[in-house]
Amino acid sequence: MHEETTTKEKILKKIRKALIEKTVKGTNVDFDSEIYQRSEQPLEITFAQQLTKLNGKFIYCEDEKELGENISSLLDENKWNHPGDKQGASVFCFEKKAADLLKKSKISFSESEKDIRHANIGISLCEYLVARTGSVLITSKQAAGRRLPGFANYHIVIAYSSQIVYTIKEALTGIKKKYGNNFPSMIVNISGPSRTADIEKTLVQGAHGPKEIYVFLVSE
């Protein structure tokens, strides 16, 4: 017992010493240089590759007209825009800009937040797309917030080429610049469909959110 105590005391003594002593080496750490080497290919391609690796779906659109056509085709192919079908599908969109685009394309959807629990397809905008990780950043400042993606089985994201950055750091810097002192109370980094492997080590998608995510990127 005495030997164990002695060993323990020696270890604790070393830890205390290490915490007290100030290190001289490494004080001039470069926090500004990028950790990851940037890809030479366009950000759109890098983002599409990374999103696909995460089982997300990427659709490129030349303009907003093609955006409407592509979303309409996706909804029709999966019979998602027919509230009376056997799947009980319902399309929801709470953000004005996205809603206006859907109306121009004559796509039916609900804007009623009180029925959000019945959302099967959620359509929203985003703050940024992060190319290196294939991630989508959304914040509480958006009308959809985290609620719509959290309830919907399928999440459709509308983004523009000007919203693509390479790193999360760039995205957070952009959000800070955009909102200033009125910084969002919540920032969510979505990396592919919701998934977990906690149950018998079997990968399950849609465990606590959308089981599929589609990013429609509009060229600007």
CATH topology title: Rossmann fold
| Overall CATH architecture | 3-Layer(aba) Sandwich
Instruction: Name the average pLDDT.
Output: 81
Question: Residue ranges: pLDDT <50 for 5 or more in a row?
Answer: 83-88, 201-206
- Shape verdict: elongated
Our count of helices gives 6
C-alpha-based Rg, rounded? 23 Å
Helix content: 25-40%
- Looking at how many chains there are and whether they match, the oligomeric state comes to single chain
Number of E-type strands: 11
What class would the helix/strand composition place it in? alpha/beta
Written as H for each helix and E for each strand, in order along the chain, the element string is: HHEHEHEEEHEEHEEEE
CATH superfamily: NagB/RpiA/CoA transferase-like
Percent of residues in beta strands: 15-25%
Number of domains: 1
**CATH classification class:** Alpha Beta
- Order of strands across the main sheet: 1-11-6-3-2
